[in-house]
Amino acid sequence: MRFHSFLIKYGEIGIKGKNRYMFEDALVRQIRYALKDVDGEFIVHKCHGRVYVDCEGEYDYEETVESLKKVFGLVGICPVVRKPVREIEELKKDIVAYVGEMYPEGNKTFKVEARRANKRYPMNSMEINCELGEAVLDAYPDMKVDVHHPDVKLNVEIREEVYIYSEIIPGPGGMPVGTNGSAMLLLSGGIDSPVAGYMIAKRGVEIEAVYFHAPPYTSERAKEKVVDLAKLVSAYAGPIKLHIVNFTDIQLYIYEKCPHDELTIIMRRYMMRIAEHFAKKDGCLGLITGESIGQVASQTMQSLAATNAVCTLPVYRPLIGFDKKEIVEISEKIDTYETSILPYEDCCTIFVAKHPVTKPNVERIAKSELNLTEKIDELMKTAIETTEVVTVAYGD
Question: pTM of the prediction?
Fold first, then answer.
């Protein structure tokens, strides 16, 4: 069947009161971004509190639906057949033809739900329901009416054209990206941080990211892996500004000057400081990490408190109560898992202590950091000044 449009259903946006138009406009922008590389010509527009994607000429149906399923704020995608507004006898033929193509087996329960937005149409919604329901029963004797729990709900909207649809393809939900400010994601090559970025973006937050690279201890391929992960997240989050920080000299200096059981925590604290520098510079409202309580030594409650202590911006941890299996399931759903498990080490795994402290004391950690006083400010300045910044976008 040739679908001419998609009716976009949204969820939370509908309860936004006077600000609702801002969320709708953001949703329209995100839909246009999602469809920019799809074969076909699309017109995305609002009409009477609904959002539509009209498809002009030939287009790739499967690719269009897959792209729309990545747009946050969207809860349902309804493929629509558009017909000219005609008298009821012609409309009956249209609905019978639609049912015949969509449900050729015919043994379904159904309900017609007409909506007459065009008040010039001579029949009201109830009359249209009765006439169209009768036409379907006459044409398909195996079908039965069930107004409470039908297998198929035949929606007929009479506007400047007639919109006929019955299928609702689930969307990802959430809020349109860009409606809730921006935040800085600490992105590694692991499984967790891309999922954390996806989950925060789902709440309408625009994502920037920072990755800590440690050549020659981490390869160029490890960096490419992180860029690939950022691209995969950007399919949902929109273009991501990625800061690639050369962290080698800072890590070596910490390794040389600090107790080895505290290496991971102290390195993590310097990562947070650098990430916060870029976050504040770009007007981000918080940091995002993929940490989950107790997953590794640097993610105990005491360790998280020690890393938080160096930040003035809030740190958002959307995976905080998840176990690994739940995180892996989301990473598989968003197609980051296979890239995350590629065997290219990131800088965190190279300098891990054999017996890391699991209950660090913040005062003791701060005291250990005094060993770094001589050179750390200069090393931080160099790391920040030599940071490589790239903007990554899905499909590029």
Answer: 0.89
